Amino acid sequence: MNRRNFLGLLSAVSLLSPSWLMAAPLPGVSHCTLRHQGDLTSLVLDLAGPVQYQVFTLSAPDRVVIDLHGVAAHLPPGALNFAGTPVQGLRSGPTKTGMRLVLDMHQPAKAQARLVSMGGGHQRLLVDLPVGHAAALMARHAPAHGPRQRPAVIAIDAGHGGKDPGAVSGTRHYEKTVVLGIATALHQQLSRDPRFHPTMSRDSDFFVPLHQRVLLAHQRRADMLVSIHADAAPSRSARGASVYVLSAHGATSAMARYIAESENSSDAYAGVFDSTLSNDDPMVSKVLVDMSMNATIASSLDLGRMVLGHFKQVTNIHQSRVEQAGFAVLKSPDIPSILVEHGFMSNPYDCGRLISHRHQVELAQALHTSIGDYFHKYPVHVA
Ligand SMILES: [Zn+2]
């Protein structure tokens, strides 16, 4: 999509009536298939009611993003057949207003969407994915195995390390040591689970700058980032676990900074938005990245709620709702990211538990279960 079309689409969307926001219950996607005829592949979504949508493409890696507004964030079960198509995989996740679908493409594709009325209030959204002839030939000769799910890559980020001890308890216990214990236990558990491929930003006591942690997650193509911490508070009485995700406000200024940083480099951040757009119009890039970020925050909130639900079984909860703040380590525009404070180093009761191996393993198990729940709800499909 060129810039003018994209901006046209944005202004069209902003004029839409918000009445669908009030409707309850939300209609859902009743059927989802990939249709492949000749050189043309189309994603076919059947919907039980009216829908507003936006479709745009991103490059490096090539993706087609479909945002559906006013629908329930749930895809019907059943695998898609990607064989012989330019589509590599399909991901989905909730957004503030509905659901986002991301098609991972083998090669650049244009995307043309149209809505067809099927009668009885039912609608069909067709997203045509025309690719060049050479690309179509390549896709046809791709190995024709059936659809499957690949292991989800989980970036486990143990906070602090090396010269940065993190929070220090009255008894001189360091946050950096506690969080490495929990991170290591989580890594061991996920390694034994075929659904996951865990990777750590540090596996011993060394310092990693915050932006490097985000960069590592991108370089390792993580599907999720879990940053592991333990709090400190001026009052010794504060105790229990909290979960944080990025606030949209923080994201906006953070991405502006990332855009500036990536302008003269080809680092991994450049891959999260269309680099041609970023070079000649920073405003449009920012809009694209913010749209991506807002969708990611909604997914992160969902994951955060799952973690709090499972943490209730093993520890006290400090904040019963997922909190939002501008943590630098959470500023990935397209990876659901949470920061978990597992308890207070400054609270003698919490600290006593946090330094015990048994409790570290228990917390890691609760994280493991939550991550499992998340990918059960939003599986990663590949061809
Ligand atoms: Zn910390």
From TrEMBL:
Q: Which reaction does it catalyse?
A: Hydrolyzes the link between N-acetylmuramoyl residues and L-amino acid residues in certain cell-wall glycopeptides
> Keywords, A to Z?
Cell wall biogenesis/degradation, Hydrolase, Periplasm, Signal
By its UniProt entry, which SUPFAM superfamilies does this protein fall under?
Zn-dependent exopeptidases (SSF53187)
EC top class, as a word: hydrolase
* Protein EC: 3.5.1.28
Per the record, the GO terms for biological process are: cell wall organization; peptidoglycan catabolic process
Q: Which residues form the signal peptide?
A: 1-23
Which InterPro entries does this chain map to?
AMIN_dom, MurNAc-LAA_cat, N-acetylmuramoyl_amidase_3
Subcellular location per the Swiss-Prot or TrEMBL entry: Periplasm
* Gene Ontology molecular function: any one: N-acetylmuramoyl-L-alanine amidase activity
State the SMART domains in the record: Ami_3
As for family, the record states: Belongs to the N-acetylmuramoyl-L-alanine amidase 3 family.
The entry's protein name is N-acetylmuramoyl-L-alanine amidase AmiC
| The organism of origin for this protein | Pseudomonas eucalypticola
